Amino acid sequence: MKKNIGLIVLAVGLVVLIAGATLLYNNLSKEESPDKLVVQEGGHDGESDIDNSSKSDENNTENITGEELTEADTKEMVEYTQAPDFTVLDREGNQVKLSDFKGKPVVLNFWASWCGPCKMEMPDFDEVYKEYGEDIHFVMVNLTDGMRETKEGAESFIDGEGYTFPIYFDTESEAAMAYGAYSIPVTYFIDAEGNLVAQGMGALDRATLQQGIDMIFAE
Question: What residue numbers bound the domain in which 77 lies?
């Protein structure tokens, strides 16, 4: 009898522990909301991530100047790192390098057709592409591993949804390795000089996507 009571207590304890862990995970997930962009700043080992909302006082432009700076002024005060180059394939099978797009800002997005959050943000990406496609290169990189994701499957999904932005295929995982894109979706905002300006983790909403675009437009 005592043994049975002990097992029941243990089982209840495990249920409480799992419930607590789930609650904690959900709360942390909310705190790490993807609608906050992270500024990409050159520094330790060439790159460090600094949240705009949590800069130290010495990097806070409002404290430095005593007045609110424009995005162009802020950009001049940050030493950005160059976006790592890579080679992917376009829909015709041609090799395309990220550096080929230098001269215009770039929105670099990593996605897959099996990724639910990727699908959630794509209508906004397509809408923004239709608005800014002449002024910004949209480099929508598909993680094409040939097993879970194939070129044919990715193209079928994009065409079926009627999306118009260009897609590229990372068949050798070169782009994914260059950016450590093992959790998707992830979006990088790159200025016309090829500098990493900001990064957005997770599915971005329209407002956050616009914020990133505003940051990479040349003044």
Answer: 35-216
